[in-house]
Design goal:
Elements: H1 3-27, E1 54-58, H2 61-73, E2 79-81, H3 90-101, E3 108-111, H4 115-118, E4 120-121, E5 137-138, H5 142-157, E6 162-166, H6 182-197, E7 201-203, H7 205-211, H8 225-247
Parallel strand pairs: 1-2, 1-3, 3-6, 6-7
Antiparallel strand pairs: 4-5
Helix pairs in contact: 2-8, 3-5, 5-6
């Protein structure tokens, strides 16, 4: 084969390959853009007014429920924040508190742990296990709860903020994975811990919620929208009083 023919064959092959490649590229499905999950409104930071004090609310889904109501009640009074998560039991609080506090100077910290500590789990971490089952137990024993809460309270107090312990709300009859009356038991232990640490105020949320138990969902620890609004007003009332005392 002559050199000229060889060159021509190479050129033809290159052109065909290029055409096929171009056609493949044209028919390929465009890469999908990654889906970015939208942060739920309760987790979003406030529109900061630097002239106002900063308030941090720490708690589980009950606090998530009243977050926006509390922020609304404190509009023009304080910048109200919360961690962008369900704060869960005291065990999570111990490992996450530094991150939740960050480097912001807090004026008031309003916090609670309890419903996740007293809930029953199975031997393999099964959530909301049957309290009557022989192999189930509270996620955090009441003894460990006291120890953990003591450490958390001390760390919060060390920030220099006015710290408010918020009582755990009631467990209604029929609520899965929890025993009615355990909120009171854990609150009683928490009261002793808070008194021992000293210098921490208490938001009597348990009694407030108990007086409005018609606003709690049936056989569920959570609240209706009206119930969460009422709890949010209670939080705002307690925080407002703390800010006023702090300003004196």
């Amino acid at each position: 084969m002559s050199v000229l023919k060889s060159v021509m064959l190479v050129l033809v092959f290159a052109c065909l390959t290029s055409a096929v490649t171009a056609q493949d590229a044209a028919t390929k499905t465009p890469a999908k853009k990654p889906v970015v999950a939208k942060m739920r409104s309760e987790y979003q930071p406030p529109k900061v007014d630097d002239s106002l004090p900063h308030v941090l609310l720490i708690g589980d889904s009950i606090s998530i429920g009243y977050m926006l109501d509390a922020r609304k009640e404190l509009a023009g009074v304080a910048n109200v924040w919360r961690p962008a998560t369900n704060c869960g039991p005291t065990t999570r609080g111990l490992t996450s508190l530094d991150a939740w506090l960050g480097d912001r100077k807090w004026d008031v910290i309003h916090f609670n742990f309890g419903l996740h500590d007293l809930k029953y789990v199975g031997p393999k971490g099964g959530n909301l296990a049957d309290p009557k089952a022989a192999d189930s137990a509270p996620q955090v024993s009441i003894e460990d709860y006291a120890t953990n809460l003591r450490q958390i309270a001390r760390q919060l107090k060390a920030t220099g903020a006015t710290v408010i312990w918020r009582e755990t709300t009631p467990v209604p009859e029929g609520a899965k994975g929890r025993i009615p009356g355990d909120s009171k038991r854990y609150n009683d232990v928490a009261a002793k811990v808070i008194a021992e640490v000293g210098g921490i105020e208490t938001d009597p949320m348990y009694d407030v919620a108990l007086q409005h138990k018609n606003l709690q969902r049936k056989a569920d620890v959570h609240y209706t929208a009206e119930g969460s609004a009422l709890l949010g007003k209670q939080v705002a009332k307690t925080v407002r009083a703390a800010l006023e005392s702090r300003a004196k």
